[in-house]
Amino acid sequence: MILTEGKVRIEVPEFQKITSKNKVFYNPEMKMDRDLSSLILSFYKGVVLDGLSATGIRGIRYVKESGLESIFNDINPEAVKLITKNCKMNDVECKIYNKDLNVLDVEAEIVDIDPFGSPSRYLASAFRIVRPKGILCVTATDTQALCVSKKACIRKYSAIPLRTDFFKELGIRILISTILREGMKQDYSIEVMLAYAHKHYMRVFLNVKKSLKGIENNIRDLNIVYYCSCGYRTYSKDIMQGCPNCGKRINLSLPVWTGEIKNDNFLNKLMKKEITPDLEKILNIIKNEINVPFYYDPHRLAKTYKFDLKKIDLVIEELKKMGFQASRTHFSRTGIKTDADLLSLLKIFI
């Protein structure tokens, strides 16, 4: 089946249910992410490794739309045949490897890892391949492990998840902390340019560089996150014995990245480009999110404290009048990001 996506035409397998057993993997649900990735990488120069290429759609779009040179790799021989065919169809010169990414011997300014499931097993190789002052683009589709499944999260990400009203953001922060801890082993620090969750996946774009000073700064943003069923949440490097709001046992997640998950200056540059309506919608929400960790869901609080809900925009305005920062969040249609503490937020409802 031949289809058009962005500025390229590619052959893909006949559509079927997406599973790890597909002959060659192609997911139409990831089109928006490929649109955004192509846009973001147009700001950079050099070679990009499409480490798990499948049909080759990402790497080909990076050549045709971002002005980059792409290296393709896939362990599946059937995928390599399809990549070769698709590169020829789009007049793209290509270097194609048929290897396990973890033994691939190449270098690149940009490394893109878009696996079926967890990216964890490829992170060490990503830092081995990426050149100093490079870019890492990482996708995770195993959101169940990152957000709620304790055993799977510990096994794959060496971290503890929590069932919270901000579970999507906690999941993406666990993903970032996993990437950071792998990078530190090879003397890499990170700067998050953009991290977001959409549909079934999470995606992170990072500037990375060899910097021990940068690592010291990064470590300051690795913390224990505390959450109580009463709605209280905070983060710290200190050990808490109980919830300061209700006195109950408090749950914790660690280690968690609590630094910024978007670069506002970079987002402003992105928004000046010609973009699709779908991209404009999500980028506008992300751009307007305040840069503080975690969000509240008034629906969850209403069940606990038995109050009537108010319109989200009215709550945000009330918080601003009280002197706090507040905004919507792309993580949840009903979520509110704010630097207000729980009791200050409850005053608006109770």
Summarize the structure in words.
There is one protein chain. With 350 residues, the chain is α/β, with parallel strands linked by helices. 36% of the residues lie in helices and 25% in strands. The protein has 13 helices and 15 strands. The strands form four sheets. A seven-stranded mixed beta sheet has the order 5-4-3-6-7-9-8, with helices on both faces. A three-stranded antiparallel beta sheet has the order 11-10-12. Strand 14 (326-329) and strand 15 (332-338) form a beta hairpin. It is globular. The chain starts with a strand and ends with a helix. 43% of the residues are buried. The model has no long low-confidence stretch (mean pLDDT 95).
Give the key terms.
13 helices; 350 residues; seven-stranded mixed beta sheet; alpha/beta
Give the topology string: H per helix, E per strand. Answer: EEHEHEHEEHEHHHEEHEEEHHEHHEEH
Structural class: alpha/beta
Euclidean distance between termini CA atoms: 58 Å
Number of helices: 13
The tally of beta strands, per DSSP, is 15
Strand order of the largest sheet: 5-4-3-6-7-9-8
The helix content is 25-40%
Low-confidence stretches: none
Gyration radius, in Å: 21 Å
Shape: globular
Q: Tell me the β content.
A: 25-35%
Mean pLDDT: 95
Assembly level: single chain
Draw up the topology in text.
Elements: E1 2-5, E2 8-11, H1 31-41, E3 47-50, H2 57-66, E4 69-73, H3 77-89, E5 95-97, E6 108-113, H4 123-129, E7 130-140, H5 143-147, H6 150-157, H7 167-184, E8 188-198, E9 201-210, H8 212-220, E10 222-227, E11 233-236, E12 251-257, H9 264-271, H10 277-288, E13 295-296, H11 298-305, H12 312-321, E14 326-329, E15 332-338, H13 342-349
Parallel strand pairs: 3-4, 3-6, 4-5, 6-7
Antiparallel strand pairs: 1-2, 7-9, 8-9, 10-11, 10-12, 13-15, 14-15
Helix pairs in contact: 1-2, 9-10
